[in-house]
Amino acid sequence: MIQNPGFVYWKPIQSGLEEPTDTQSVKQLASLSENRIIPEAYQLVEPRSPHESAAMEGITIEMNQLKIPSLAENKPLIIEGAGGLMVPINDRCMMIDLISFYKASVILVARSGLGTLNHTFLSLEALRKRNIPIKGIVLNGEKHPSNKKTIAEVSQIPILAEIEPVFPLTFNSLKKTHFPGLVL
Predict the structure, then answer these.
(1) What is the pLDDT tens value at each position of the chain, 184 positions in all?
(2) Alpha-carbon span 157 to 124, nearest angstrom
(3) What Cα–Cα distance (Å) separates residue 76 from each residue in 33, 88, 90, 174?
(4) What's the pTM value of the predicted model, to 2 decimals?
(5) Residue 18: what pLDDT?
(6) CA distance 15 to 21
(7) Rounded mean pLDDT of the chain?
(8) How far apart are the two ends of the chain, measured CA to CA in Å?
(9) Given this model, what pLDDT does residue 29 score?
(10) How many Å apart are CA 11 and CA 47, to the nearest integer?
(11) Which domains does the chain carry?
């Protein structure tokens, strides 16, 4: 187990509590200790959009409950969204509004196959329209060289990684197949 990873992870809203949750998966895959995980502000039972899952439980997700927690150490914080940029979190705000609220930079994760050009360029346009800094793009799924080339050329945003499916999905298999030089 890695004793001193270089980041802290937080998923403010978890919709769907079937195990493993996203936080549990990241903890296991990145071999993170408890002090590198911040508990979710909202844990919603149903695996639906945050606003719908919250409504089913009779609650409203409030922005003031989603403030970035104070960190004991000066480590980078990775914040994972829920459902995509334009997914509602309540009747007034979408996930992209939460990113703006945080004044955070974004690494956009996009599927690599059919449909990604439209989806990726719409997402980038929405981020740029709100002046949200974009650090890079990660393509997820079977490699599609022409999509990667088109996204890189048109967007002028670096492609940080292409992550193909890994079976079994473990820290060691992910590191071996995709990130051989990775040190957390």
Answers:
(1) 334 458 999 999 999 999 999 999 999 888 889 999 999 999 999 999 999 999 999 999 999 999 998 887 788 999 999 999 999 999 999 999 999 999 999 999 999 999 999 999 999 999 999 999 999 999 999 999 999 999 999 999 999 999 898 887 777 776 677 665 555 4
(2) 9
(3) 15, 26, 27, 21
(4) 0.87
(5) 93
(6) 9
(7) 90
(8) 10
(9) 85
(10) 15
(11) 1-74 (no CATH), 105-184 (3.40.50.300)
From the list 11, 75, 149, 176, the catalytic residue is 11
Q: Is 11 a catalytic residue?
A: yes
